[in-house]
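Give me structure tokens for this 195-residue protein.
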Amino acid sequence: MSKATSAPAANSLFAKYLMEVGATADVSKSYGQQAAAITKVLSANAERNAVLIDNTGYARDLVLQSVAARLTSKGGKRLYRVNWNALFTLAKDEAAFDRELKGILAYLEANKATTTIYLDDIASFSSETPVLGAKVSQILYAALSQGKIQILSAADADTFERQIAGDKRLRSRFEKIEIAKDDDQGLSVTSFLPI
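Here you go.
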């Protein structure tokens, strides 16, 4: 499991909703390769996002912790999770929720060079299965499709194909990194170029 720590930007009104992903370099060689590939994508261009293709879901936290360590050591970029429970709970009404979410996204956009967000699943910004609700999904989708924020997320291969590779606004902004089946050294990175 990843360890949450407070955001270094404690002076931000929105820092209470951000939890830094705990960094650890203690992962297997195979997952280290995926973590290195993801780190390369996220370090090279703040408008590129990475999706870990993990059909079983068991490797996500291990890769996530390694990515956090690598990002920090390569130049100080930090990996955060949004504390959605706090956001949904602390907002007094829909208007307050909207203000807080927009504030979080404005903060992330202003700090994009040093901040990447981890969304547990691409369903967070999916219109097909919006796990955080349709409104949140639409707002996240708009921020991603316009290159305003940078994320790391995860999905299975079929969901990625439907929701990102099949979406002309998103596919040029994402690279997928796959955990290959039954292969210690398995790694596949796919970039999508604008059509």
